[in-house]
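Entry: ACR3 family arsenite efflux transporter
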Amino acid sequence: MSAFERYLTLWVILCIALGVALGQAMPQLFQAIGRLEVAQVNLPVGVLMWVMIIPMLLKVDFGALGRVGEHWRGIGVTLFINWAVKPFSMAFLGWLFIRQVFAPWLPTAQLDSYIAGLILLAAAPCTAMVFVWSRLTGGDPVFTLSQVALNDTIMVFAFAPIVGLLLGLSSITVPWDTLLVSVGLYIVVPVIFAQLWRRALLRRGKAAFEAALAHIGPLSMGALLLTLVLLFAFQGEAIIHQPLVIAMLAVPILAQVLLNSGLAYWLNRRLGERHSVACPSALIGASNFFELAVAAAISLFGFQSGAALATVVGVLIEVPVMLLVVRIVNRSKSWYDAGASRC
Protein backbone atom coordinates (compact mmCIF):
# COMPACT_ATOMS: atom_id res chain seq x y z
CA MET A 1 0.00 0.00 0.00
CA SER A 2 1.36 3.41 -0.96
CA ALA A 3 1.76 6.14 1.66
CA PHE A 4 -1.00 8.06 -0.11
CA GLU A 5 -3.44 5.13 0.18
CA ARG A 6 -2.45 4.44 3.79
CA TYR A 7 -3.29 8.02 4.79
CA LEU A 8 -6.41 8.31 2.64
CA THR A 9 -8.49 9.16 5.72
CA LEU A 10 -6.23 12.15 6.43
CA TRP A 11 -6.54 13.38 2.84
CA VAL A 12 -10.32 13.05 3.00
CA ILE A 13 -10.44 15.07 6.23
CA LEU A 14 -8.31 17.79 4.61
CA CYS A 15 -10.63 17.81 1.58
CA ILE A 16 -13.65 18.17 3.86
CA ALA A 17 -12.06 21.19 5.56
CA LEU A 18 -10.97 22.74 2.25
CA GLY A 19 -14.34 22.12 0.61
CA VAL A 20 -16.31 23.62 3.49
CA ALA A 21 -14.01 26.68 3.57
CA LEU A 22 -14.21 27.26 -0.20
CA GLY A 23 -17.96 26.76 -0.20
CA GLN A 24 -18.35 29.46 2.41
CA ALA A 25 -15.89 31.82 0.72
CA MET A 26 -17.06 31.41 -2.91
CA PRO A 27 -20.67 30.17 -2.93
CA GLN A 28 -21.46 31.68 -6.36
CA LEU A 29 -18.63 29.76 -8.03
CA PHE A 30 -19.86 26.41 -6.76
CA GLN A 31 -23.46 27.22 -7.60
CA ALA A 32 -22.31 27.86 -11.18
CA ILE A 33 -20.44 24.53 -11.21
CA GLY A 34 -23.56 22.79 -9.95
CA ARG A 35 -25.56 24.14 -12.91
CA LEU A 36 -23.21 22.63 -15.53
CA GLU A 37 -25.48 19.70 -16.32
CA VAL A 38 -26.55 17.71 -19.37
CA ALA A 39 -29.41 15.20 -18.93
CA GLN A 40 -29.11 15.53 -15.12
CA VAL A 41 -25.41 14.61 -15.26
CA ASN A 42 -23.03 17.21 -13.87
CA LEU A 43 -20.26 17.63 -16.46
CA PRO A 44 -17.32 18.39 -14.11
CA VAL A 45 -18.29 15.43 -11.93
CA GLY A 46 -18.75 13.19 -14.97
CA VAL A 47 -15.20 13.92 -16.13
CA LEU A 48 -13.79 13.44 -12.63
CA MET A 49 -15.65 10.15 -12.24
CA TRP A 50 -14.16 8.75 -15.43
CA VAL A 51 -10.66 9.81 -14.36
CA MET A 52 -11.36 8.17 -11.00
CA ILE A 53 -12.98 4.91 -12.16
CA ILE A 54 -11.17 3.96 -15.38
CA PRO A 55 -7.70 3.47 -13.77
CA MET A 56 -9.37 1.19 -11.20
CA LEU A 57 -10.94 -0.93 -13.94
CA LEU A 58 -7.66 -1.15 -15.86
CA LYS A 59 -6.42 -3.54 -13.18
CA VAL A 60 -9.26 -6.01 -13.81
CA ASP A 61 -8.42 -8.96 -16.05
CA PHE A 62 -11.68 -10.49 -17.26
CA GLY A 63 -9.65 -13.39 -18.63
CA ALA A 64 -9.49 -14.58 -15.01
CA LEU A 65 -13.16 -15.59 -15.29
CA GLY A 66 -11.92 -18.85 -16.80
CA ARG A 67 -10.33 -19.78 -13.46
CA VAL A 68 -13.36 -19.11 -11.24
CA GLY A 69 -14.02 -22.84 -10.82
CA GLU A 70 -10.62 -23.42 -9.21
CA HIS A 71 -11.90 -21.97 -5.93
CA TRP A 72 -15.62 -22.70 -6.15
CA ARG A 73 -16.23 -22.65 -2.40
CA GLY A 74 -14.58 -19.27 -1.89
CA ILE A 75 -16.29 -17.88 -4.99
CA GLY A 76 -19.64 -19.18 -3.73
CA VAL A 77 -19.17 -17.43 -0.39
CA THR A 78 -18.09 -14.22 -2.13
CA LEU A 79 -21.16 -14.18 -4.39
CA PHE A 80 -23.50 -14.99 -1.50
CA ILE A 81 -22.12 -12.19 0.69
CA ASN A 82 -21.82 -9.55 -2.03
CA TRP A 83 -25.16 -10.04 -3.74
CA ALA A 84 -27.50 -11.81 -1.29
CA VAL A 85 -26.36 -10.36 2.06
CA LYS A 86 -24.44 -7.11 1.75
CA PRO A 87 -26.94 -4.77 -0.02
CA PHE A 88 -29.89 -6.09 2.01
CA SER A 89 -28.06 -5.97 5.35
CA MET A 90 -27.09 -2.37 4.64
CA ALA A 91 -30.70 -1.47 3.82
CA PHE A 92 -31.71 -2.98 7.17
CA LEU A 93 -28.88 -1.28 9.09
CA GLY A 94 -29.74 2.01 7.40
CA TRP A 95 -33.36 1.65 8.48
CA LEU A 96 -32.31 0.66 12.02
CA PHE A 97 -29.79 3.42 12.67
CA ILE A 98 -31.02 6.26 10.44
CA ARG A 99 -34.79 5.90 10.80
CA GLN A 100 -34.85 4.59 14.38
CA VAL A 101 -31.78 5.10 16.57
CA PHE A 102 -30.41 8.41 15.24
CA ALA A 103 -33.57 9.89 13.70
CA PRO A 104 -34.13 12.49 16.47
CA TRP A 105 -30.70 14.03 15.77
CA LEU A 106 -30.78 13.94 11.96
CA PRO A 107 -32.56 16.34 9.56
CA THR A 108 -35.92 14.71 8.80
CA ALA A 109 -35.87 15.82 5.16
CA GLN A 110 -32.61 13.92 4.54
CA LEU A 111 -33.39 10.57 6.19
CA ASP A 112 -34.42 8.86 2.94
CA SER A 113 -31.44 10.33 1.15
CA TYR A 114 -28.98 9.05 3.77
CA ILE A 115 -30.40 5.52 3.44
CA ALA A 116 -30.21 5.76 -0.36
CA GLY A 117 -26.51 6.66 -0.11
CA LEU A 118 -25.83 3.70 2.17
CA ILE A 119 -27.60 1.37 -0.27
CA LEU A 120 -25.56 2.72 -3.19
CA LEU A 121 -22.39 2.19 -1.18
CA ALA A 122 -23.20 -1.46 -0.44
CA ALA A 123 -24.49 -2.39 -3.91
CA ALA A 124 -21.07 -2.24 -5.61
CA PRO A 125 -18.29 -4.60 -4.43
CA CYS A 126 -14.75 -3.25 -4.18
CA THR A 127 -12.75 -3.37 -7.41
CA ALA A 128 -9.27 -1.92 -6.90
CA MET A 129 -8.43 -1.64 -3.21
CA VAL A 130 -9.22 -5.33 -2.63
CA PHE A 131 -5.93 -6.14 -4.41
CA VAL A 132 -4.14 -4.11 -1.72
CA TRP A 133 -6.03 -5.77 1.15
CA SER A 134 -5.45 -9.24 -0.34
CA ARG A 135 -1.71 -8.62 -0.65
CA LEU A 136 -1.53 -7.50 3.01
CA THR A 137 -3.07 -10.81 4.13
CA GLY A 138 -1.12 -13.11 1.82
CA GLY A 139 -4.24 -13.75 -0.24
CA ASP A 140 -4.23 -16.03 -3.28
CA PRO A 141 -3.68 -13.65 -6.24
CA VAL A 142 -5.49 -15.91 -8.74
CA PHE A 143 -8.57 -16.12 -6.52
CA THR A 144 -8.51 -12.38 -5.85
CA LEU A 145 -8.34 -11.56 -9.55
CA SER A 146 -11.04 -14.05 -10.52
CA GLN A 147 -13.49 -12.89 -7.84
CA VAL A 148 -13.02 -9.24 -8.84
CA ALA A 149 -13.57 -10.07 -12.52
CA LEU A 150 -16.72 -12.06 -11.70
CA ASN A 151 -18.12 -9.40 -9.37
CA ASP A 152 -17.54 -6.64 -11.92
CA THR A 153 -19.28 -8.71 -14.60
CA ILE A 154 -22.29 -9.23 -12.34
CA MET A 155 -22.27 -5.55 -11.32
CA VAL A 156 -22.88 -4.44 -14.92
CA PHE A 157 -26.23 -6.25 -14.85
CA ALA A 158 -27.18 -6.32 -11.15
CA PHE A 159 -26.31 -2.86 -9.80
CA ALA A 160 -29.38 -1.03 -11.16
CA PRO A 161 -31.97 -3.74 -10.30
CA ILE A 162 -30.65 -4.18 -6.74
CA VAL A 163 -30.46 -0.44 -6.08
CA GLY A 164 -33.92 0.06 -7.59
CA LEU A 165 -35.40 -2.79 -5.53
CA LEU A 166 -33.92 -1.64 -2.22
CA LEU A 167 -34.78 2.02 -2.77
CA GLY A 168 -38.33 0.95 -3.58
CA LEU A 169 -38.57 -1.25 -0.48
CA SER A 170 -37.29 1.71 1.55
CA SER A 171 -40.11 3.87 0.09
CA ILE A 172 -37.61 6.05 -1.78
CA THR A 173 -38.57 7.25 -5.25
CA VAL A 174 -36.44 5.52 -7.87
CA PRO A 175 -35.38 7.83 -10.74
CA TRP A 176 -34.98 4.90 -13.14
CA ASP A 177 -33.93 6.96 -16.15
CA THR A 178 -31.12 8.64 -14.21
CA LEU A 179 -30.16 5.35 -12.55
CA LEU A 180 -29.79 3.59 -15.90
CA VAL A 181 -27.85 6.54 -17.35
CA SER A 182 -25.52 6.36 -14.32
CA VAL A 183 -24.95 2.64 -14.87
CA GLY A 184 -24.12 3.30 -18.52
CA LEU A 185 -21.84 6.25 -17.79
CA TYR A 186 -20.06 4.95 -14.70
CA ILE A 187 -20.01 1.16 -15.23
CA VAL A 188 -20.60 0.04 -18.82
CA VAL A 189 -18.66 2.72 -20.71
CA PRO A 190 -15.67 2.76 -18.28
CA VAL A 191 -15.47 -1.07 -18.33
CA ILE A 192 -15.39 -1.14 -22.14
CA PHE A 193 -12.94 1.75 -22.39
CA ALA A 194 -10.66 0.35 -19.66
CA GLN A 195 -10.53 -3.11 -21.25
CA LEU A 196 -9.73 -1.70 -24.71
CA TRP A 197 -7.01 0.45 -23.17
CA ARG A 198 -5.72 -2.51 -21.15
CA ARG A 199 -5.36 -4.62 -24.31
CA ALA A 200 -3.57 -1.81 -26.12
CA LEU A 201 -1.11 -1.39 -23.23
CA LEU A 202 -0.47 -5.13 -22.88
CA ARG A 203 0.43 -5.35 -26.57
CA ARG A 204 3.40 -3.16 -25.67
CA GLY A 205 4.46 -5.60 -22.95
CA LYS A 206 3.87 -6.22 -19.25
CA ALA A 207 6.47 -3.63 -18.22
CA ALA A 208 4.74 -0.92 -20.27
CA PHE A 209 1.41 -1.87 -18.71
CA GLU A 210 2.77 -1.69 -15.15
CA ALA A 211 4.46 1.64 -15.89
CA ALA A 212 1.19 3.05 -17.24
CA LEU A 213 -0.66 1.93 -14.10
CA ALA A 214 1.95 3.61 -11.92
CA HIS A 215 1.57 6.88 -13.83
CA ILE A 216 -2.23 7.05 -13.95
CA GLY A 217 -2.89 5.71 -10.43
CA PRO A 218 -2.33 9.11 -8.76
CA LEU A 219 -4.76 10.69 -11.26
CA SER A 220 -7.51 8.44 -9.94
CA MET A 221 -6.93 9.43 -6.32
CA GLY A 222 -6.54 13.08 -7.31
CA ALA A 223 -9.90 13.02 -9.09
CA LEU A 224 -11.49 11.45 -6.01
CA LEU A 225 -10.11 14.13 -3.71
CA LEU A 226 -11.15 16.95 -6.05
CA THR A 227 -14.65 15.47 -6.18
CA LEU A 228 -14.72 15.49 -2.37
CA VAL A 229 -13.70 19.16 -2.30
CA LEU A 230 -16.58 19.96 -4.67
CA LEU A 231 -19.04 17.88 -2.69
CA PHE A 232 -18.18 19.44 0.65
CA ALA A 233 -18.26 22.91 -0.85
CA PHE A 234 -21.96 22.18 -1.40
CA GLN A 235 -22.39 20.31 1.90
CA GLY A 236 -20.57 22.89 4.02
CA GLU A 237 -23.65 24.52 5.52
CA ALA A 238 -25.04 21.18 6.69
CA ILE A 239 -21.68 20.08 8.13
CA ILE A 240 -21.24 23.33 10.06
CA HIS A 241 -24.69 23.09 11.64
CA GLN A 242 -24.68 19.32 12.25
CA PRO A 243 -21.09 18.03 12.49
CA LEU A 244 -22.18 14.80 14.22
CA VAL A 245 -24.04 13.65 11.10
CA ILE A 246 -20.82 12.14 9.73
CA ALA A 247 -20.24 10.12 12.92
CA MET A 248 -23.83 8.84 12.88
CA LEU A 249 -23.60 7.81 9.22
CA ALA A 250 -20.37 5.94 9.97
CA VAL A 251 -22.08 3.61 12.45
CA PRO A 252 -24.14 1.50 9.97
CA ILE A 253 -21.19 1.40 7.56
CA LEU A 254 -18.87 0.10 10.29
CA ALA A 255 -21.48 -2.44 11.43
CA GLN A 256 -21.92 -3.66 7.86
CA VAL A 257 -18.16 -4.09 7.33
CA LEU A 258 -17.74 -6.16 10.49
CA LEU A 259 -20.88 -8.23 9.82
CA ASN A 260 -20.08 -9.13 6.22
CA SER A 261 -16.35 -9.71 6.64
CA GLY A 262 -16.94 -11.85 9.73
CA LEU A 263 -19.68 -13.90 8.05
CA ALA A 264 -17.61 -14.49 4.90
CA TYR A 265 -14.54 -15.47 6.95
CA TRP A 266 -16.57 -17.89 9.09
CA LEU A 267 -18.35 -19.47 6.10
CA ASN A 268 -15.05 -20.10 4.32
CA ARG A 269 -13.70 -21.74 7.47
CA ARG A 270 -16.79 -23.93 7.79
CA LEU A 271 -16.42 -25.02 4.16
CA GLY A 272 -12.75 -25.91 4.65
CA GLU A 273 -11.41 -23.26 2.27
CA ARG A 274 -7.77 -22.19 2.55
CA HIS A 275 -6.91 -19.09 4.60
CA SER A 276 -5.32 -17.46 1.53
CA VAL A 277 -8.74 -17.66 -0.17
CA ALA A 278 -10.85 -16.79 2.86
CA CYS A 279 -9.01 -13.50 3.43
CA PRO A 280 -9.72 -11.84 0.06
CA SER A 281 -13.23 -13.35 0.12
CA ALA A 282 -13.91 -11.66 3.47
CA LEU A 283 -12.26 -8.41 2.43
CA ILE A 284 -14.20 -7.93 -0.80
CA GLY A 285 -17.38 -8.58 1.16
CA ALA A 286 -16.45 -5.79 3.55
CA SER A 287 -15.19 -3.07 1.22
CA ASN A 288 -17.01 -1.05 -1.42
CA PHE A 289 -16.49 0.42 -4.88
CA PHE A 290 -16.89 3.84 -3.31
CA GLU A 291 -15.88 5.71 -6.47
CA LEU A 292 -18.96 4.33 -8.23
CA ALA A 293 -21.17 4.97 -5.20
CA VAL A 294 -20.12 8.63 -5.01
CA ALA A 295 -20.71 9.10 -8.75
CA ALA A 296 -24.14 7.45 -8.66
CA ALA A 297 -25.24 9.38 -5.56
CA ILE A 298 -24.34 12.74 -7.10
CA SER A 299 -26.06 11.85 -10.39
CA LEU A 300 -29.22 10.52 -8.73
CA PHE A 301 -29.65 12.93 -5.85
CA GLY A 302 -27.26 15.87 -6.35
CA PHE A 303 -24.24 17.40 -4.65
CA GLN A 304 -26.21 18.68 -1.66
CA SER A 305 -28.00 15.41 -0.95
CA GLY A 306 -27.68 13.24 2.09
CA ALA A 307 -26.96 10.34 -0.28
CA ALA A 308 -23.79 11.99 -1.55
CA LEU A 309 -22.69 12.71 2.01
CA ALA A 310 -23.32 9.10 3.10
CA THR A 311 -21.16 7.69 0.30
CA VAL A 312 -18.33 10.06 1.21
CA VAL A 313 -18.43 8.84 4.81
CA GLY A 314 -17.72 5.41 3.31
CA VAL A 315 -14.58 6.85 1.72
CA LEU A 316 -13.62 8.51 5.00
CA ILE A 317 -13.58 5.31 7.06
CA GLU A 318 -12.59 2.82 4.32
CA VAL A 319 -8.85 2.60 5.02
CA PRO A 320 -8.77 2.47 8.84
CA VAL A 321 -11.68 0.01 9.00
CA MET A 322 -10.26 -2.28 6.33
CA LEU A 323 -6.83 -2.23 7.98
CA LEU A 324 -8.61 -3.38 11.15
CA VAL A 325 -10.16 -6.31 9.23
CA VAL A 326 -6.74 -7.12 7.74
CA ARG A 327 -5.24 -7.20 11.22
CA ILE A 328 -8.01 -9.48 12.52
CA VAL A 329 -7.71 -12.08 9.74
CA ASN A 330 -3.91 -12.08 9.98
CA ARG A 331 -3.92 -12.59 13.75
CA SER A 332 -6.58 -15.32 13.62
CA LYS A 333 -4.79 -17.52 11.05
CA SER A 334 -3.94 -20.29 13.55
CA TRP A 335 -7.57 -20.38 14.77
CA TYR A 336 -8.79 -20.44 11.18
CA ASP A 337 -6.44 -23.22 10.07
CA ALA A 338 -7.36 -25.37 13.09
CA GLY A 339 -11.05 -25.19 12.20
CA ALA A 340 -10.67 -25.50 8.43
CA SER A 341 -8.52 -28.64 8.76
CA ARG A 342 -11.37 -30.44 10.55
CA CYS A 343 -13.83 -29.79 7.70
